[in-house]
Amino acid sequence: MSIDKEASREEMVLAIVSKYKEIPGPLLVVLHEIQQELGFIPPEFIPGIAEGLNLSRAEIHGVISFYHFFRSTPAGRYTIQLCRAESCQAMGSRELERHAKKSLEIDFHQTTADGQITLEPVYCLGNCACSPAIRVGDAIHAHVGAESFDAIVNELISEKVEVKN
Amino acid sequence: MANIKVYVPRDTTACSLGADSVAVSLQHYFSNNDIDCEVVRSGSRGLYWLEPLIEIETDSGRIAYGPIGPNIIDEFIAAKFWKINKEHWSYLGVVDEIPYLQKQQRVTFARVGVIDPLSLSDYENHFGFSGLKQALDMSSQEIVSQIKDSGLRGRGGAAFPTGIKWQTVLDTKSVQKYVVCNADEGDSGTYSDRMLMESDPLCLIEGMTIAGIAVGADKGYIYLRDEYPLAFSVLEEAIVLARNSNFLGENILDSGKNFDLEIRLGAGAYICGEETSMLESLEGKRGEVRPKPPLPAIKGLFGKPTVINNVISLASVAAIIVNGASSYQNYGVNRSRGTLPFQLSGNIKYAGLVEIPFGATLKDLLYEYGGGSRSGRPLKAVQVGGPLGAYLPESQWDTPLDYEAFASIGGMLGHGGIVAFDDTVDMCAQARFSMEFCAIESCGKCTPCRIGSVRGVEVIDRIKAGENSVKNKELLLELCDTMVTGSLCAMGGLTPYPVRSALEYFAEDFESGS
Ligand SMILES: Cc1cc2nc3c(=O)[nH]c(=O)nc-3n(C[C@H](O)[C@H](O)[C@H](O)COP(=O)(O)O)c2cc1C
Ligand code: SF4
Ligand code: FES
Questions:
Q1: Domains identified in chain B, total number
Q2: A14 at the B interface (CB within 8 A)?
Q3: pLDDT per residue over B377-397, tens digit each?
Q4: For residue B359, which phi and psi values (nearest 5 degrees)?
Q5: Could you tell me if B491 and B344 lie in one domain?
Q6: How far is CA B310 from CA A36, B278, B404, in A?
Q7: Rounded to whole angstroms, how far apart are CA atoms B499 and B480?
Q8: 10 Å Cβ neighbour count for B512?
Q9: Among B142, B295, B274, which Cα is nearest to B215's?
Q10: Last residue of some domain: B422, B449, B473?
Q11: Rounded percentage of chain B residues whose pLDDT exceeds 70
Q12: How much is the pLDDT for A4?
């Protein structure tokens, strides 16, 4: 990462901190927005967040590590959340989970070697009437099986090519 | 031809089946061909096996077609459905006469699927804000008494009487009080909160505002799970709409009363649905459960008296004020009054939302509404009330859906989620998952919950491997007892329920090699 880019990222983080520092209980709001912008919460910015919000670094570490959604390392270009909860289990999500890990050659919380896809577990997407469900970005997919999973992945990967053209 | 309204749902599940793309295709077709049809994005009726469900407004009611996915949209358009094509295979007739819907009593969900969720005029034309207007003319005590008299109990899981909770907050003196809506809906197999928020968000806003006026709180928070991106954007828009028309904010409808609200997002922790963990999270901290007392009603968010209610509890409030406590309390049985929006999911043919009064049986829901399994195989087990609810075998399916009746068989209605499994399910694997889930989601405060659940997974693995099976089953039950007695909250305290019920009713699945 170039020094310039790093500096502007830090500026952005500090701007987010000062935007919310007066609201009651701001930390989760701040972390959400940082992750929204950067895809993760770079540990090197924790001291700045701590200072801005008048909290200890340990408190911020503690919060980031408590919540499954917050990450300290970058994710792939796309994150696929695969529902592991009971309604989806009843409709074959255990097989889907095995298939996804095998075809992407990764486990949960990992990213494919080409940096495209990160696989995360999720416990219910509220789409239980049409289980199994997965989420990619803000899109939720219904009745996902091995075949439709592969189709969704392929579409994501080919979208990348289109964007680059 | 006069302008015809064509309704296409915009709820998460309808969209997961292609409703957005269907709506775009229809809009294009109508405008390219100068057909005077307007596409309205409504909410979903919750008849999910029929989604995307398209409705046409006619003089004799709304006519429905479904399921109309993007793959058949061209054929559907070619059938000129807007001229009412009774011959088309997807023709369902008047939507309100579809038996699944007709048999229900939609009280809290009266507007869901009917209106455009982001149209104030639609909302007001369907009794929207009538409850708020009435409440503004009532004293705080009158509002709280109405809620008490209605018999409404919290729909988030614990079923505590809502009116009594409000009374405590009303009676606690404080300049600052809060109303917090629990929209964390973490229970697997449940989606009624999501539907309500996506399909009738103003109803939740109205309910929270009435709660604020009743107890003297001027600030509300909706703690919404991050897994619901669509609910988030719909709610955000609805809040702006309400604020712009002075249903929220300062001096609401010139009453001199103030109430405003804000959405805060969760971050993927199931335990944050537990009310005190949620308060910690709202305060920007780790979601560790607080000991009770103090009750949140006395010392809640930022140490102030706080009403905490589930989405459905709050969304039921306006209708109670409008129709009167006794009309709500007339529904139901025993101490379970009113209606509950049950959610059918898992391996079930007709999955969807069924709002009915308490008192029917699980069998009614599974077969009369649900139509049996989706796979066509026999149903074997049903989990009611989310991941902490017991697995029930067929012999228990005649139990009436009533809080106390379920408690008496070691089950719980919880938030009304019903997850069906066919006979291919391995109940030992389900029990193992319950322990695993507890290990992943434990807030870490109590050893029996944090460590006991990890040990539970190991012991179940040993049972399945045939190692010392008798002894290990005993050990598992002991572990369950320790978790029940030594846990601060229901996460550790109830995880043993699905585990024990699996072992008790489906012992054969715990044999090695099964
Ligand atoms: C582990 C755990 C998870 C919970 N999750 C939720 C939830 O997602 N939504 C909810 O409304 N209540 C949930 N509850 C219940 C809340 O603690 C609380 O009882 C409820 O929000 C009160 O609102 P009500 O009285 O309107 O139901 C949960 C409880 C526990 C112990
Ligand atoms: S039972 Fe589990 S989740 Fe509940 S307070 Fe104890 S450790 Fe936390
Ligand atoms: S259990 Fe998977 S979406 Fe609800």
A1: 4
A2: no
A3: 999 999 999 999 999 999 999
A4: 120, -25
A5: no
A6: 27, 12, 20
A7: 8
A8: 12
A9: B142
A10: B422
A11: 99
A12: 80
Residues B266 and B146 in one domain: yes
Q: Which residues pair with B310 in a beta bridge?
A: B182
Instruction: Provide the shortest C-alpha distance from residue A92 to chain B (in Å).
Output: 9
Give the number of other CB atoms < 10 A from CB of residue A102: 10
What is the ipTM, given to two decimal places?
A: 0.97
The CATH number given to whatever domain includes residue B464 is 1.20.1440.230
- With an 8 Å Cβ cutoff, are B191 and A126 in contact? yes
B277 with B301, same domain: the answer is: yes
Closest CA to B165 of B320, B319, B296: B296
Residue B85 domain-assigned (yes or no): yes
Atom of ligand 1 nearest to the CA of B185: 8
CATH number at residue B359: 3.10.20.600
Same domain, B345 and B487: no
Together in a domain, B162 and B39: no
Q: End of a domain among B289, B307, B328? A: B328
What string of DSSP letters covers B193-241?
HHHHHHH-HHHHHHHHHHHHHHHT--EEEEEE-TT-HHHHHHHHHHHHH
Tell me the average pLDDT across B320-336.
97
Residue B480 lies in domain: 427-510
- What mean pLDDT do residues B89-114 have? 98
Q: What is the mean pLDDT of residues B144-152?
A: 98
Average pLDDT over residues B442-456: 98
Residue B18 half-sphere exposure toward CB, CA atoms < 13 A: 16
Shared-domain flag, residues B340 and B299:
no
- Helix (H) / strand (E) element for B405: namely helix B403-408
Contact state of A94 with B302 under an 8 Å Cβ cutoff: no
Chain B residues close to A85, C-beta within 8 Å: 188-189, 387, 437
Residues 6+ away with beta carbon under 8 Å from A3? none
